[in-house]
Amino acid sequence: MKTLGTWGVVLASGILIILALLTGFEALMVAAAVVAGWQVAVSAVAALKVKVISIDLLVVVAAIGALFINNYWESAAVTFLFALGKALEKTTLAKTRKALSDLIEAAPETATKLEKGEPRAVQLWELVPGDTVLVRNGEQIPVDGTVAVGHGGVDEATITGESVPVEKTAGSRVFAGTWLRSGTLQVTAEAIGADSTLAKIIHRVEDAQDDRARTQTFLERFSRWYTPAVMVVALVVGLATKNLELALTLLVIACPGALVISIPVSVVAGIGRSAKDGVLIKGGEYLETAARVNTLVVDKTGTLTTGRPALTDVISLDSRFSQEQVLYLAARAETASEHPLASAVIEGARARGLSPDLVESAEPVTGQGIRALVEGVEVTVGSAQLLSEPADTAVLEELNAAGKTAMFVGYGGEAIGVVAVADTVRVDARQAVESLHARGIEVVMATGDAARVAAAVGAELGLDDVRAGLLPEDKLDLVRQLQAGGRTVAMVGDGVNDTPALAAADIGVAMGAAGSPAALETADLALMADQLPRLPHALSLAQRTVRTMRINILIALVTVALLFAGVFAGGVTMALGMMVHEASVLLVIGIAMLLLRPQPATHAV
């Protein structure tokens, strides 16, 4: 029977049933039952060997019992429908794993290696770290590495879920399995084959799809007791009523197939969809937990903000100098400074079309700023102490209160203007916070930064709570405090000083995890792209998945209840019971497969 294959068994059994109906030759019905039921019986016996009473055993007992009471049609129909259901179940489950198979198919097998400047086609296993590979327009990038020469647009959808090509130049990171859509790149190989980010994602998704959700584990334990209980009830009913056909029908309609399959197929589909969207979830248990998250604790720097200071304000205090002139003088003075804020002023000037040249001479003043000579005139950038004339500090105080670092620009000892820099809020942060609020999730910022800076960011984004000046242990205490209050907490941090809080949170989230093996392995939920709106997207998908689980469990239970009522009311036969049973299995699988569809545009990022 094994050589026929799953669908071969179904086809052979179906043909035998049709021939039996046409010819009236009952031996063909028996043959159909044997063909369809053989593999089911093998599975039942294998389960018994490990002391498990499986669903397959219910079907086998019912089919053999029907043969004993000369009900050959019922025996053939039950085994045929069960085999058909198994075949369809196997096929649709394979479809739910399509996201994983797409990732596997995306893995490159060959590369173009540059040897002494000459390209040579090689197998992937021939490459070693340090080799240079050539990638032309339209080709797949075969390794994780760094662009050495060239520029082009790379489609990173297989890694980050982002459909818009990302511009890559010398020094940019690239990943195996992505596609070069424009330009030509020479890439220095760093991670090859099983060491690549794509391989780690595939491994992670494989493990996650096989990981059991808490609900699934409970249902499996339930079915272990439920199945033998059904056999006992059927035996009691048969003895009490002296109606063997009724007892056998009870065995068939009580099969908990839809109940058992409802959870794993939902988990596989949900995790597969999230992987396609560039979000990795560690497993079914974490998927269920993510669906219950009602509080998000998030670090500020690099998560809600860019993590890089940028020029925010330029104010002229002297009518002789325009804003552009104030900024130009400040930027020229800062060309001699090594202070982290200096580059923000210089880049801000360049962004406005100014080209600050190096100053003639300069003198950094510790704790105050810088004093420079610009075209023979002293220009200062920093505190009021660098000025020889008194200056009104009200403007500085107002900017500082808003969480910015403000500095006087002095010319010849007089204050002519003010420039301010700050770690700016990410452009997508407000969208993410609003999406989280729309899902009923509170957002709490936990940062080690100063209170005034944290308060400014919190006000701009509309956060529910702001905790500033926190040490790593304070963040851990905050997470535990929220959990003690009955909150389900997700934590987003940089994975370094936030590690204790990340570990204690119900869900630890790594953002921008592409190319970070540690983040991929340790995070409960990893956002491959450095995009915060992916988090509400992922939590929404988790909620959809759990909602699908509940709907499927309800369908399974209602189906069994209705079939039981139908049997005792009369009218539900073994064959009809099995048909309804298999229909319910396919229905719950079909509902779970809806998770594979992209989320509506309102959730897209």
Automatic annotation (TrEMBL):
Family matches, as InterPro entries: ATPase_P-typ_cyto_dom_N (IPR023299), ATPase_P-typ_P_site (IPR018303), ATPase_P-typ_TM_dom_sf (IPR023298), ATPase_P-typ_transduc_dom_A_sf (IPR008250), ATPase_P-type_domA (IPR059000), Cation_Transport_ATPase_IB (IPR051014), HAD-like_sf (IPR036412), HAD_sf (IPR023214)
Limits of the P-type ATPase A domain: 107-206
GO CC terms: plasma membrane
UniProt keyword list: ATP-binding, Cell membrane, Membrane, Metal-binding, Nucleotide-binding, Translocase, Transmembrane, Transmembrane helix
Alphabetical list of CDD domains matching this protein: P-type_ATPase_HM
Membrane topology category: Multi-pass membrane protein
GO MF term (any one): ATP binding
Domain of life: Bacteria
Entry keyword annotation includes Acetylation: no
A Pfam family reported for this protein in Swiss-Prot or TrEMBL: E1-E2_ATPase
Record's subcellular location: Cell membrane
Transmembrane segments: 7-40, 52-73, 222-240, 246-272, 551-572, 578-596
Similarity comment text for this entry: Belongs to the cation transport ATPase (P-type) (TC 3.A.3) family. Type IB subfamily.
Protein name (record): Copper-translocating P-type ATPase
Species in which this protein is naturally found: Rothia aerolata
